[in-house]
């Protein structure tokens, strides 16, 4: 499908050209920033320290860059129009490039000089160029019936040679991996397999097969589906498994999923969509975000789906209410499935509206949240023979977080009705989100997790000021910190001759809090969490925070995360 034609000088002149109310450059929160200019031509960086000679490739990150169109502001953290960032590392130095994703949403909105295309938490205003009848249809159309946005702002995926920008709809944009230029053609996964949307958190297997979680709406309850993409090609999509949502009119919001050698893992949490609210017309502010409901008194449901048969295990695993955006890792050992997640007990989606983010830290009405690394252990073998009301993880080593001065354990108890009630164990009391691991250990027993950290999450809500390394077996941790910068999700890159799991470096982009056009590539020794190199750049426009990204190592034929 070809995109809408780019705006002409005449159409721009005819639009409402009032000066937009951009936030001040030195914002209280970095996520308020708005970018007006990308850096297409690329700029060379100034290297401080030493980049390892073996580290060559491209770090590509995705996130919201444009928060204002004309006088209109996007309402939610997840709504801003995408900007892609790339750091190309070669011969001990690096260069930086950024480019707005020229999606249909980008083009249509800029042509109208207002937000026309609806996003997750922002209802679009009808295009002034369409007919009165079409405007009326737009106003009365509910979120569940609207055309999905192609503002692919969440993540990127390159398995072979094709780079894709992804979000949580059925739309995927193809991007030139060398220049970040948006391909005029776009892909819709529902053109190749019968699903309505998919997550932006796929898993990449060693054989280049990509698995992702999708969703189907029909006459009955919404179904969750697992989709396989051979060689990472959307055109090769095939459904591997289908399971119904547990609540017919309140399907869960699932941002990602877990994977082990034999199972796909879904956690239906307490955050769910209210289908009735999804029918609310645009004129009343109907959006997907407004249709979400948090049910703190309900249990979470852990669902294990066989990769071989596509069938769900009959055991009903439940836990107390929580929400997780991300899985750290999942693996199987000795008849148990270990599920490590970044967990919060809060109604996170409401907290991520820009109105809340923009409040000062001392505003008592501001909502903040803590995110902790938690481990759940699901006993799989001989559950039907297990006694009720007894601890099923009493002698299970993988359930324990143990060090010389500390011992804690996850718990699993069989209830009289046959359900298994799970209690997670907290692996660290330190904030940990946007988790990454040495991807060679995906689906396998592992020792280390990495993520962003905030020293004071109440005062510095979302202003990640450090990186954390966590030993998931002992709970011991190390933190790198620079309070003058906002840290992005760290990506682990192993040394070519690595012997241990943490032999390698963490690479990420850090953003200067005081000088808005400055950013740096950060290289951290993953063993001791000390800074190895920093490459400083000055961009054309304001640098905005990112969500997720991928390192494309030079010389590799298949790329994972």
TrEMBL record:
Q: Which organism is it from?
A: Hirondellea gigas
What is the name attached to this protein's record?
Beta,beta-carotene 15,15'-dioxygenase-like isoform X2
Keywords noted in UniProt: Dioxygenase, Iron, Metal-binding, Oxidoreductase
UniProt similarity note: Belongs to the carotenoid oxygenase family.
Q: Which residues form the signal peptide?
A: none
Lineage in the entry?
Eukaryota, Metazoa, Ecdysozoa, Arthropoda, Crustacea
Binding site residues for Fe cation: 201, 255, 326, 548
Q: GO biological process: what's one of them?
A: retinal metabolic process
Top-level taxon of origin: Eukaryota
Cofactor info, note text: Binds 1 Fe(2+) ion per subunit.
Q: Which GO terms describe its molecular function?
A: beta-carotene 15,15'-dioxygenase activity; carotenoid dioxygenase activity; metal ion binding
Which metal ions or organic cofactors does this protein require, according to UniProt?
A: Fe(2+)
- Region Disordered, as annotated, extends over 1-27
